[in-house]
Specification:
Length: 563
């Protein structure tokens, strides 16, 4: 059992992290508009609250540093000192140090904060010594704060309608419900085998499903929770690059699984920083090209079926795909003869390959290419996709297609060689039948027409029966099942789409659509490229989940190598 003291500390940490993030946002707003009295009052209230809460728990580092920041804000609020570039530099550094001090409470690390605290105190003393009237006493500050918070007549004791629950508790609860769903499906399958009416289980299905979705909804948060962190990210990146950049937030009310946001947060930081560094042009160049002097970066979110699309858009210089085409040849990523035949979209996909960079300079912020492979891997790790649109002189838009929840995954079940497999519905475009006569060989692979376009065809059985994926390099390795088929054979083909590449995957039998709870692969098979995880079906059988992103990459690479 946790002690009351540790529970209070845990609640303090949850609130303090949100308060410090809000401070970052308010400091950025105040820096842009130094007459913003609401921002000044907001910063004062937060630092005052942080100080009081930390003192009550004996957290000296937080209370002393927030007290020093509060003293500065009191002087600003009372017009005793004026805002300046130097003061903002100190305040931003103080908030960064405050972040470190708060995080250290979880790790029990020691963080030195006396330096920045002294800087704040000395700066304040020097400014006040210029002749401004003395600051009000501590008792007066508390009185001012009390008067500020009184509205709702007299101050009242109130309880929040929100309770704080650690994410791990929610994850554990959802895992237990997942096991309940598996047992429910197993019980229903067993009842069918012995001839019982499945209608008897309808109420159980409804209650267990409602419970599952209720817990999933409890894990959902608005994307604004993440988007609001980027005011400081853009501000710092623009300061380094000496550029004038505004951040626009849209779709902040869209809800998404907290764990999805956690996975893609670093990716968004990469994208936003790169947009500032390599996308937005210097002010003089923008004016010269007839653009507003201030560049714009937009973070947006919207629903699309069972997915959420996170958008990072800039109105900068855009990406010249012909420049990328030359660079991938120079770097030896593609032969010159192959590069010449690549479409614009195929060329742009190389931006997401490891080792590619389109930056001509090295500083604290990389060019658009550096880290883009990290973005791709992170998004794909949760069954998502990255798509890029760009126009030279107009700007670039990166779309992250991610699931709204990691708890349930919509899949298509199918059979290959007597084993059931699943693949994410988010990659699936259609299920069709293709005659053998419609498939033809091309180099080491197979091709067919789908909606008047040539697409790659692969017998999944050929890949699953390989002892190692290195066998893909052997000529004819992807044509074995085709050679063994007869002229009048028809094939069940699942059409999948990933990163603009459409592929036809031939399976023995398509079974059904099903929402599954996917579990990560256990060691030592967790490094298998072709599988993203497994699930347990109602029959009790283990069902591997095919990683369509990895499969498409493998086939695409094979096609390029054979050209």
């Amino acid at each position: 059992m946790k002690s009351k003291e540790s529970e209070y500390k845990e609640l303090f940490l949850i609130e303090a992290k949100d308060q410090i993030e809000e401070l970052d946002k308010l400091f950025v707003e105040l820096e842009k508009d130094q007459s913003n009295q609401d921002a000044i009052d907001g910063i004062f209230r937060i630092t005052h609250t942080l100080k009081g809460n930390a003192m009550g728990l004996g957290l000296d580092g937080v209370s002393e540093l927030s007290h020093a920041m509060e003293d500065v804000m009191i002087a600003i609020r009372n017009k005793q000192i004026t805002l300046s570039k130097k003061l903002f530099e100190i305040l931003f550094r103080a908030n960064d140090k405050l972040t470190q001090v708060v995080r250290a409470l979880e790790t029990n690390q020691k963080v030195s904060y006396l330096g920045i605290k002294t800087s704040l105190s000395i700066f304040l003393k020097n400014e006040l010594d210029k002749g401004a009237p003395a600051a009000p006493k501590e008792e007066e500050i508390d009185h001012q704060e009390e008067e500020t918070t009184k509205q709702e007549g007299q101050a009242q004791v109130m309880f929040s309608d929100v309770i704080q629950i650690p994410v791990k508790k929610m994850d554990d609860l959802l895992n237990e419900v997942g096991q309940l769903i598996i047992e429910r499906d197993r019980l229903i399958a067993f009842s069918q085998d012995i001839g019982l009416a499945t209608a008897e289980f309808e109420r159980l299905k409804r209650i267990s499903s409602n419970l599952q979705y209720s817990i999933m909804n409890a894990r959902m948060i608005q994307v604004g929770f993440l988007f609001n962190k980027f005011h400081r990210v853009v501000r710092d990146a623009a300061a380094i690059e000496v550029k004038n950049v505004a951040l626009v937030l849209k779709g902040t009310e869209i809800e998404i699984d907290r764990n999805v946001l956690k996975v893609i947060s670093d990716s968004l930081v990469h994208l936003v920083r790169n947009a500032v560094s390599h996308g937005i042009e210097p002010e003089a160049k923008r004016v010269e090209n007839g653009k507003p002097p201030e560049g714009s970066i937009t973070l947006d979110a919207r629903y699309e079926r069972d997915r959420v699309i996170i958008v990072v858009k800039d109105d900068g210089a855009g990406i010249d795909h012909e420049v990328i085409r030359k660079k991938i040849v120079q770097k030896g990523m593609v032969a010159d003869a192959v590069a010449k035949d690549l479409t614009k979209d195929e060329v742009l996909r190389y931006i997401f390959e490891s080792g590619f960079s389109n930056s001509d300079k090295v500083n604290e912020i990389s060019g658009r290419g550096v880290g883009m492979d990290v973005v791709k891997k992170a998004v794909e790790s949760i069954g998502g996709q990255v798509r890029i649109e760009t126009e030279v002189g107009t700007g670039t838009t990166v779309n992250l297609h991610v699931p709204s929840s990691l708890a349930l995954k919509g899949t298509l079940l199918f059979d290959v060689g007597g084993q059931e497999y699943a693949m994410a519905l988010s990659y699936t475009e259609a299920v069709v039948t293709i005659a053998r006569s419609e498939i033809y060989k091309l180099s080491g692979g197979l091709m067919a027409k789908y909606q008047d376009e040539a697409i790659s065809i692969v017998f999944l059985k050929d890949i699953l029966e390989m002892k190692s994926l290195d066998e893909l390099g052997q000529r004819g390795s992807l044509q074995k099942s085709f050679e063994l088929s007869t002229d009048d054979d028809d094939f069940n083909v699942i059409i999948v789409s990933y990163m603009g590449q459409t592929t036809g995957v031939i399976v023995d039998k398509v079974l059904q659509q099903k929402e599954i709870i996917e579990k990560p692969l256990a060691k030592p098979i967790n490094k298998t490229k072709l599988l993203s995880g497994t699930t347990i079906l109602g029959s009790g059988n283990v069902c591997p989940v095919i990683d369509i992103a990895a499969l498409t990459d493998l086939i695409h690479l094979k096609v390029l190598q054979s050209k």
